[in-house]
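Hi everyone, sorry if this is the wrong subforum. Our group has a chain we'd like a structural model of before ordering constructs, and none of us has done structure prediction before. Sequence below.
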Amino acid sequence: MNARAKWMIVLTVTVIAAMVVFAQRRGSRRGIFDGDRGGVPQWSNEPGFGKDVFTFVRIEYDSRFGGGRGWGRSGNGCFTDYKDADLNLSYRLQQLTSMKVDPEGRMIRLTNPELFDYPFIYLVEPGRLEFSDEEVKVLQRYLLSGGFLMVDDFWGELQWQNFYQEMKRVLPDVEPVELEMSHPIFHGVFDLNREKNDMQIPALGASRYRDGITWEYHDGEECRDVHFKAYLDSKGRMMAFIAHNTDNGDGWEREGDDEFYFLEYSEKKAYPLAINVVFYALTH
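Answer:
Right subforum, don't worry. Here is the predicted structure as C-alpha cells:
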C-alpha cells in the first residue's frame, strides 16, 4: 500500500508521550453535528501537506436488524462516540507525539476510492455490522495490501460471532489469534505492564463502574474477560487489532465528562493503548 509505505519513511516518531503529563482536559459537551469542536483545541498543519499527516479514519457501515445507512437509524453502531472520540484522539496524538495529525479526522465507506490513501482505519461496535459483497472485496484488498484495521467496543459471544462471520467473508483462510500482554504492541510507546482484564474500559454510563465492575452485561459472564486479538497475513504482519469486551472509544469521547473516569480509564488505558496501536500500525 502506497500510503503505508510513505508512512514507513515519513514517520520518524520522536515520541514524547511517555514523558508528558496529560494536559488540560475539556469539560464541555456538544451535539454530534453542531459544528463545534467542544473545546478540543484547533491546530493547522503546513499548507500543501494535507496528505502527509496522520488522519484518524472511521468506517461507516450498515447494520443488521434495522440499522441501515445514515445517521439516526436504530442499531447503526458505526456512529458510536462520534465525533468527540475522533477529535479527542486526534488531539492527543498531536499533543503527545511528534506526529502531524489532521485535526478533523474522517468518516468514509469502505467503497470510497480514497480508502487506500489512509494506512489506518477504525471500526466500532461491529456486533451487528453487515458488509456488502463489494465491501468484503475492498476490505480484503486493503488489508492484504498493507492497510491496518482497529476494531473496538463490542461485547459478548453473540456480537463476537457476528463480527467473526463477517471477517470470515473478508479473510476466509485467516483465524484471529489471541494477543498476550507481552506482545510488542502493548509496549511500543507506553509500557502497558498490566493484567489483560485490568485494561477493560466501561462506557461512562455503565452502572457501578466506580465499584470496580467494568464489564457490560450483554450475554453472560464472558463479557468479564477482555480479549485482544489480531489477524495476521501470511508473513506474520498484523492486519487488524481487535479489542473485544472493552470500550476504548468511550475513554476518548468522554474524557472531559468526569474526573474519575478520565484519570482511571482515559489517561491510564484508552489513550496509551490507542497511541501504541497507531504507532505499531505505522511502523511494522
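For your construct planning: Residues 5-10, 17-21, 24-35, 66-74 have pLDDT under 50 and may be disordered. Residues 2-23+49-283 form a domain with the Rossmann fold fold (CATH 3.40.50.12140).
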